[in-house]
Amino acid sequence: MEIPPRSPDGSEKSPQRRELVTSDTGSTLCVSSRSESVWTSASRSKWDIYHKPIIVVSVGAAIFLFGTVITSLPCFLTENKKAFKMSGPAFLSLGLMLLVCGLVWIPIIRKKQKQRQKSQFFQSLKSFFFNR
């Protein structure tokens, strides 16, 4: 087992030890956590809750429409048909994928919101009965 190097007077900690002590790993993990804390009860607006899936649906719809236009261009143009025929379906599939992902995301968020409301209700009930 290795003994970490000490400073000449023995008062300073080793650089590795100092780094571990001053690290904010725990607080960083809590802050960067994807789920919200149960103890935060600040109500959020609908836009704060649904802005990510709305953006994904909007971008998906735009890419899907762009893919539709690109796919239909070989019917009207005589040049570069092969490039349009190859890139059009790619944009169609990408747009459809984003559109469906965003549309599925919305009910998932609704379900989570209902579960969170139930959880907060039961926690308030629990605190009411057990904190007497």
TrEMBL record:
<keyword id="KW-0472">Membrane</keyword>
<feature type="transmembrane region" description="Helical">
    <location>
        <begin position="54"/>
        <end position="77"/>
    </location>
</feature>
<feature type="region of interest" description="Disordered">
    <location>
        <begin position="1"/>
        <end position="28"/>
    </location>
</feature>
<keyword id="KW-0812">Transmembrane</keyword>
<protein>
    <submittedName>
        <fullName>PIRT protein</fullName>
    </submittedName>
</protein>
<feature type="transmembrane region" description="Helical">
    <location>
        <begin position="89"/>
        <end position="109"/>
    </location>
</feature>
<dbReference type="GO" id="GO:0044325">
    <property type="term" value="F:transmembrane transporter binding"/>
</dbReference>
<dbReference type="GO" id="GO:1902936">
    <property type="term" value="F:phosphatidylinositol bisphosphate binding"/>
</dbReference>
<dbReference type="Pfam" id="PF15099">
    <property type="entry name" value="PIRT"/>
</dbReference>
<dbReference type="GO" id="GO:0005886">
    <property type="term" value="C:plasma membrane"/>
</dbReference>
<feature type="compositionally biased region" description="Basic and acidic residues">
    <location>
        <begin position="9"/>
        <end position="21"/>
    </location>
</feature>
<dbReference type="InterPro" id="IPR028068">
    <property type="entry name" value="PIRT"/>
</dbReference>
<keyword id="KW-1133">Transmembrane helix</keyword>
